[in-house]
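Q: Give me the 3D complex with LLP.
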Amino acid sequence: MGEGLLAPTISSSDSAAGISAVTLETIAAEVGTPTYVYNAAAVRGQYGSLISSLQAVPHRIHYSMKANSSHAILSLLRELGAGVDIVSGGELFRALRAGFRGRDIVFSGVGKTRTELREALTAGILMVNVEGEGELYLLNEIAGELGLVAPIALRVNPEVTVDTPHPYTRTGERGLKFGIAYDEAIPVGRLALSLPNIRLRGLDMHIGSQVSSLEPYRAGTERLLQLYEKLRLEGANDIAYLDIGGGLAVTYDDEKATDVEAFAAAIHGVIQNVPLTLILEPGRFLVGNAGLLLTRVLYRKRSGGREYIITDAGMNDLLRPSHYNAYHHIESVRPTGVRGVFDVVGPVCESGDFFALGRSMDAAEPDDLLTIRSAGAYGFCMSSTYNSRPRAAEVIVDGDRWAVATEREEYADLTGHELTELAWRDV
Ligand code: LLP
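A: Here is the predicted complex, encoded as structure tokens.
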């Protein structure tokens, strides 16, 4: 995990840190723990910095809602003017519920079902980012049944080298399951042009997540433009969008966040002479450092020379450390100045249930409150009820007020869909 003995400095982009200790204590007292706490100002700040960097580039921001699909966050981003990037029928349902219109939505994903495609076309979405021939035929058929023409982008694997902190978050390298293999993009494009109920509106890529370097974006965008030129020669006259995905990086520890000014300049350099609107699908960049997980220390314990801090949040609440070995900064809400080296672990019955290993940090005692930082993206939305632990609550803070955004689940929610009387059927 690359943790030094010194506590890392939290960058100013971690505005969730701006929520006062008093507010966090009030939230813990009134809502309980574990609770996700989001700072609306931090989301606004990130959104604002992105759009002001992109002023010279015709663009649309489609927030990748898989990062955090809670209604309060969706509403906030809708008010700011964002559209959304969805990956399932469930996300479409949430997006429409939050007030996004069909034309605010693009639909990505490697395995879209017939039902999901039908729902998306019925909602009149901007584009389906198609991943292959099979999906194209299916979409053509469904569009025909609905008496519609399906607007699509071809999601192409640009086959560029990408460096991300974990291999699971790379998507734009050769041989991965995502996108149309680069050398098949032209034949698939020809197919799209030949199908009566398909309209080719865009080209799309997504290279990975937490990508701070600009080069793979520049190289990938150039490769999309080469396809654009070739497809135009094949009669593709309706291409209006160039979707270059999400993946912009934030700071968790001491890594470099994406310099959005430099990012925008690099992309502008590549696309300035083509009449295309840029689409970006940022997720983590907009919400990652706008949220924290508030948890209470249950116990301290010593075992085999290790010092443990046991919290009431577990890997079911925040999976990232366990699943990706991801670093999340951890701080006491009221630091005492007494420090030590600890494993911060949850109550789940798995040795992989940890938030930090061998971490130099405040020596928190039972009943103390801790914040697990940079948990606004891929936190709550990846949580589960493993060990039959009801999901945490979510709270949003906006200036001098705060509100519960999602109530804590109750035990009855755990069994809501389980049948105690089984309706047996003959085999
Ligand atoms: N667009 C597409 C097609 C994607 O697959 C993703 C993320 C995004 C946009 C947004 O990426 P972002 O801007 O948030 O990096 N659970 C992992 C991250 C998985 C990302 C999957 N795709 C994590 O916790 O790090």
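A quick observation: The CA atoms of residues 314 and 346 lie 4 Å apart.
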